[in-house]
Amino acid sequence: MKNISRRKLVQLSLLGSVVSVLGSRSFAKALALMPTPDETEGPFYPVKDQKDKDDDLTQIDGYVANAIGQHIVVSGRVIDVYGNPVENAMLDIWQADANGRYRHPRDPNKARLDENFQGWAVIQTNDNGFFRFKTVMPGAYPASGTWIRPPHIHLKISKPGYRALTTQMYFPDEKLNKTDLLLNAKSAAEKSAMIAKNIGQQGNLPIYEYNIVLDLLRK
User: Fold this and answer.
1) Which of 71, 149, 170, 208 is the catalytic position?
2) Domain ranges across the chain
3) The domain 32-214: what is its CATH number?
4) Does 104 qualify as catalytic in the annotation?
5) What CA–CA distances, in Å, run from 29 to 34, 85, 191?
6) 86-108, pLDDT tens digit by residue?
7) Which of 71, 101, 102, 104 is catalytic?
């Protein structure tokens, strides 16, 4: 048997004391993951229902042409703060098209609307909490005369028993991230949690990973 140093024994003894004092539930809570940060829904959540809300936003059912812009894949996993997968969670996804225009009647952006971009999807996680959708890299757009919003995707995530979350996913290495008023109101840890990771290519499609952590409803 491998010898354990005196220092290691002391460390283990202290850890055991902490668990004993706090109790197993409190200790687990201390090790819990940080929930994905909340963010504003924004003014362009879809107000007009549409038939096609599937996981491919680049192609609208019944349309011949595809959406313009760089097509991408976003995949990830929804878990709770203790690392357990959240199956059958509902993901409500909406974003601007490649021109930075939302499919919304009150979007003041003068950019041309891409009529072939679906703009909105409602999907569910599988039994292991995984999700995946295909979309376009959203364009930047003016939020005011001095503020240009970086590319981002809006998400609402919900499931009974969990705290509903509305957040925004950002992209790595975007210059506009550095000046975005919403993103820069977050802590460094929160920013890191809200920025997706580029994990490679699938053919000519960049793949971004974005994992989401939901908090449990407290009784």
Assistant:
1) 149
2) 1-31, 32-214
3) 2.60.130.10
4) no
5) 11, 17, 22
6) 999 999 999 999 999 999 999 99
7) 102
